[in-house]
C-alpha cells in the first residue's frame, strides 16, 4: 500500500502543467479550457495581521483553496502519479484536503 502526504500540494500546482495535462490527458478544449484558465489567472493574495496589510501579490502557482474545484484540479494535476501506481500494481487511496 502506498501512503503519500504532500505538503502544501494545492499551493504548488504549476498552472502551465495543469493546463497541458487537462488538454492532453482529459481532452479539455475550447471554452471549457478558457474558463479554467480564467479561473486560475490574475489571482492575488494579501497578508493581513493586526493593522498591517501587505501589498497584493499575483499568484502564479496553486489552486484556490476552500473551493469545490481545488480538489478536482489537484486530482487532474496528480494523475501521472496514479498512472505510475497502476502500472506497478500498487494499492493506493488518494485524499486531497486543502486545509
From TrEMBL:
It comes from the Eukaryota. Residues 1-99 form the Reverse transcriptase domain. Pfam families: RVT_1 (PF00078). The keyword Glycoprotein does not apply. One of its GO terms (molecular function) is RNA-directed DNA polymerase activity. Keywords: Nucleotidyltransferase, RNA-directed DNA polymerase, Transferase. This is Reverse transcriptase. It comes from Elysia marginata.
Amino acid at each position: 500500500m502506498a501512503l503519500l502526504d504532500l505538503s502544501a500540494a494545492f499551493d504548488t500546482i504549476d498552472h502551465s502543467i495543469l493546463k497541458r495535462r487537462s488538454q492532453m490527458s482529459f481532452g479539455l478544449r475550447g471554452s471549457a479550457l478558457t474558463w479554467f484558465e480564467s479561473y486560475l489567472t490574475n489571482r492575488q493574495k494579501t497578508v493581513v495581521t493586526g493593522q498591517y496589510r501587505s501589498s497584493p501579490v499575483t499568484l502564479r502557482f496553486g489552486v484556490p483553496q476552500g473551493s469545490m474545484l481545488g480538489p478536482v484540479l489537484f486530482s487532474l494535476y496528480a494523475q501521472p502519479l496514479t498512472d505510475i501506481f497502476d502500472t506497478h500494481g500498487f494499492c493506493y487511496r488518494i485524499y486531497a484536503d486543502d486545509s
